[in-house]
Amino acid sequence: MIVKKLLPIKAHYFFFLAALGPILPQLQVFGRELGISSVVMGSVTGILPFVYLLAKPFFGMVVDIHREYRKCIFMGLIVIMAVSYGCIIFIPLKSAKFYEVKVGEVISKCERTMNNNTIFEEAECVSENSIKLNKFQLYFPAEDPENISICSARQELNAEILASTFKCRKLPEVSIDLLSESLSFWFFIAQLSIGTVAFNVINSISDAVCFDVIGDEYDYGKQRTWGAVGYGIAAIVSGYAMDFLPHNFGGYRAAIFIMLLFIILDLVSCLKLKLPIIPAPDNIWKELAYLLKHNDVCIFLIFTIISGVADGFLTYFLLWYVEDISELSGTKNIKFLEGLIIAAQTFGGGILFFYIGDNIKKKLGHINCFSLCFLCYALRLFLISIASPWVIIAIEFFLQGPTFSLSYLTIVAYANDIASAGTSATMQGIAAGLDDGLGYALGSLIGGILYRFVGASQTFQIFGAISALAAISHFAFTNGGSKRRSQ
């Protein structure tokens, strides 16, 4: 049975998240291709969520107080997000350079013009059978002021090289000193910041608007499912377009164009939204203070942060990790592979758990649902750490649902349940601010540092261990509290 009044909110979720499917997973990778290291990128995306930690509750409160302007505020933020992300298309990218040489052969394919100075170039050698041989620096000495062309390097390995050929990749990573002087870097950071803050605020307001529209009559998950469908379709289409369309139409240009098309359709959908009239609360601060006095609410908010840590790390570093292991293994069509991973997340458990999540929550309760989510996060992170690029598709197909989808549904539904009349947007803003605000900040910052200095797969295993500990702790705290109250 089709309910006409629900079509605009379904369409909004579909088109809004379809607009983000091509661009959101690629932001970290785009920064990587600008030469930004995982530490710098992790620091930027780690600081940024602190902004929307404040922005989400603030805009939620504005929407709750000025409810007659909900739609205008909502659509204005969508336009700001689209313009900010769209401007990224104007930033020129750095490209990694590959030199291929047989063992025992002298590399003579690189050329460098220099003055009287010393230059170090970092390179990474990878064998054809996917074994990382070594990372070393090329040393270019110059003793006179005349321009010279030279490329020489000596490397001694205490191992027998079995591969007949290997590739050397010149890493495009740029030092922090040079980045700070780069207009491209600061322009990217500005657009990333504005777009991401706007997106996160829109996301929490969307959920509040959805609950206003459906009331107690319909399930939230069945509306939000359409967002997952749109996200997955757009991700796989854009991944294909980025890899296989001609240069003038492919790459990140294709992702931006697809995003803008869906944004236009989303704005049309928003115009059709009919929002019910709900009176503003008399004293919103008093309502919030009353809620935060309850231990159950505080425990929920603390573990909401931890959920955000796990999901934030995966959001920011999964595709970065896929790019790294794909290059080491010689995997082709990486962008298309990344599109398939996003599609697997969506069309596997992602859609299913959004659709049946309300039934699971009613049967298990939000407490046990949350504990289950942490356990599944631990399994997902550990499996990714030992998987090949194509196997990651299967992992995401089965485990995106019981991790992200179910935890998101649990957080949003519980925040709506505890919110008093007229404070839904504010409560959604607080919960979302802690989840993909503070949680994402910690996940990105800690993840970026560990990824650089501990190692990629080891970092996934560390976050898996944190998730397992969170599952045990959450179950112990919440079930222990329930037993004490029953006594």
From TrEMBL:
Superkingdom: Eukaryota
Subcellular location: Membrane
Topology term for the membrane: Multi-pass membrane protein
A Pfam family recorded for this sequence: MFS_1_like
Transmembrane segments: 12-30, 36-54, 74-93, 185-205, 225-242, 254-275, 296-319, 339-357, 369-391, 460-477
The Major facilitator superfamily associated domain, residue ranges: 8-461
Gene3D superfamilies recorded: MFS general substrate transporter like domains
UniProt signal peptide: none
Plastid as UniProt keyword: no
InterPro entries: MFS_assoc_dom (IPR024989), MFS_MFSD6 (IPR051717), MFS_trans_sf (IPR036259)
Entry keywords, A to Z: Membrane, Transmembrane, Transmembrane helix
Protein's name according to its UniProt entry: Major facilitator superfamily associated domain-containing protein
Species for this entry: Henosepilachna vigintioctopunctata
Lineage summary: Eukaryota, Metazoa, Ecdysozoa, Arthropoda, Hexapoda
